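Incident log, structure service

09:12 report received: a user says their structure output differs between two submissions of the same chain.
09:20 pulled the input from the user's history:
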Amino acid sequence: MRGVVVALGNFDGVHLGHQAVLRRAVEEGRRRGMKVVAATFHPHPRAVLGAGDPPKLLTPVGLRREVLLGYGADEVWVIPFDRDLSRKSPQEFVRDVLVGEIGAEVVVVGENFRFGHRAAGDVRDLERIMREMGGTAVAVEVRAAGKEGGISSTRIRAMISEGDVAEAAGLLGRPYVLRGEVVVGDRRGRTIGFPTANVLPDPDVVVPARGVYAGFVLVGDEKFAACTNVGVAPTFDRAESRIEAYLLDFDGDLYGRVIDVGFAKRIREERRFSGVDELTEQIRRDVEEARLITENLS
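09:34 re-ran on a clean worker, output below:
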């Protein structure tokens, strides 16, 4: 591949800042008649370098690819991050990877992008090296895209971990989504009239704080409003935390299917009830609130 525009970044979450980078790359591609390649890294550098525990992901690489393509990239290039890559100087990274492997003629990054061994290179270095190699680099200002505190994957992870999924959606530009396989649970939900899809997500992704959420579930190309519980079901003294989504206006078998669970707004915290009757009545209220929230969103 030669003569492409590369939007370069970690792109975990593909948040509004990342979208600004990709949007500029698409503009450059249209103007120059070139393909746009979104280049991301996998695994996370901290998982390779051992600089503390690697952060939980907002978008595992498969989902990230779909989202980047959805925002306008013609192709997604996953750069394997390993120790050999980490030792490359800024010059070597541009020469060997961006130009040599991907064929970059234009590289678009966020204004704070760092690269090369020990993150020695910044956007000025990228502009200089690309210029020396006959290409161009463009730095996009992304700080203005966020509210107070700026916009970053780190901030969004913290919001989701605390249950602030509506705030996180504001920085993502869409609700946060977990993808996972539907597995067999306790089957208690169907006995009280609210059968749920028990979703097993990737263990490396961020899971929202325990509580009840309004949102949606995507099954193939069909989208259903949903009321989703994240937690241990304290009324039944369950040991492990689970993600259980009740799909509104759905009737079918989802076991073994891979679905996307979207989190639009937190309805309440998880709590213990006196028994099944009280729990069932609360679920009815939760479902109706979820219905109202999702109708307003749509």
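09:41 both user submissions now match this output. Likely a transient worker issue. Closing.
09:42 reviewer note: The chain has two domains: 4-145, 176-297. Residues 276-297 form the longest helix (22 residues).
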